[in-house]
Amino acid sequence: MLETEALRKVFKKQVAVDDVNLYLKQGESVGLLGPNGAGKSTFISMIATLTKPTSGIVTWNGKNVIKNPNIIRPTLGMVPQEIALYKELSAYENVKFFGKIYRLHGKKLEQRVQEVIELVGLKDRQKELVNNYSGGMQRRINIAVALLHEPEIIIMDEPTVGIDPQSRNYILEMVKKLNEEKGMTVLYTSHYMEEVERLCDRIYIMDHGKVIATGTKDELTGILSSEETINLELEQQSKVFEEALREQSTVLKVTEWEKGLRLIVPKNSRELAGIFHLAEQYQAAITSVNIQVPSLEDVFLHLTGRRLRD
Fold first, then answer.
1. Which of 14, 83, 126, 228 has the fewest CB atoms in 10 Å of its CB?
2. Which pLDDT tens digit goes with each residue over 187-206?
3. Membrane spanning segments where (predicted)?
């Protein structure tokens, strides 16, 4: 349905997107996961024909989008990261205004305005000024606008950034419903691991402009199938203990987390006895230990050497 081949964008001497290959099948929900600055927004901006690539190809149902942007535009819904609304207008007035830009008129326009406002759960407050809405409510109207013309595919660029948990959950459930019940194809960018795990059939992990891994959640975590994660909760961080752990040949990775240290070790390595011995030696008080199978967060750490939101 949608495919990119060696898509690349260079701003002066800065490579923002570096030869990215990606595809979406009809009805899929695909996640583009990566930290801020990974190149996700630039990449989807090229797909949406808002930014011209330096090189590479985007095809929509086999036709070249770079040569003819109008091939994809009528079938595409775009939810930008920034709020794209007129805050001095009501939600109803905003949605109706954009509906006219989509060339909807008369009864069809009014019908679609009411349908999308109801879909995002704001029918009772549609006549209020957007300026009086919370950030989460504004983002929901942003999504309503993108759905007005009944697109075949919707691209969502970090649609839950900076909003309250209730609105975030509402948006995630709505995206899931659009994909599973209405069959809409979704390309969802995020730096929240749990969002793409919850919503997406396949995931592309992006960092420094490159796709560094792709697959289903199980396929990606399978990269570390021979390893396990040990979370150590400490009374307080200890640099000498941390360095001692790094020097152990059986400890593959050590990173700090808010309550202590996270270790990646070979599965069934029986490393715990050595860890407690080092903790006693360096007077590091361990308050709890949790052993778990690797997560997507661990995969990202393994591939990049840092945590997703570092």
1. 14
2. 999 888 888 888 999 999 99
3. none
Residue 208 has pLDDT above 60, yes or no: yes
Please say whether the beta carbons of 248 and 237 come within 8 A: no
Note whether 204 and 38 are within 8 A (CB): no
The rounded radius of gyration (Å) of the Cα atoms in the chain is 23
> What is the pLDDT of the chain when averaged over all its residues?
90
Helix (H) or strand (E) holding 280: helix 272-281
Asked if 40 and 211 count as a contact pair (C-beta separation under 8 A), the reply is: no
More confident residue, 139 or 259: 139
Strands 185-190 and 202-207 come out as: unpaired
Residue 25's SS3 state is coil
For residue 271, give the 3-state DSSP assignment: coil
Half-sphere exposure of 228 (CA within 13 A, CB side): 14
Residue 33 belongs to what H/E stretch? Answer: strand 29-33
Mean pLDDT of 225-247: 88
Q: Which fold has domain 226-293?
A: Alpha-Beta Plaits (3.30.70)
Pairing of strands 55-60, 63-64: antiparallel
Q: How far apart are CA 211 and CA 204, in angstroms?
A: 6
**Cβ–Cβ < 8 Å for 104, 149:** yes
d(CA 264, CA 247): 13
Residue 26 has pLDDT above 90, yes or no: yes
Residue 192's beta-bridge partner residues? none
Residue 288's alpha-carbon distances to 30, 272, 292, in angstroms, are: 36, 12, 13
* Torsion angles phi and psi, residue 79, rounded to 5: -110, 100
Homologous superfamily of the 2-221 domain (CATH): P-loop containing nucleotide triphosphate hydrolases (3.40.50.300)
Which residue has 């960018």 as its token pair? Answer: 189
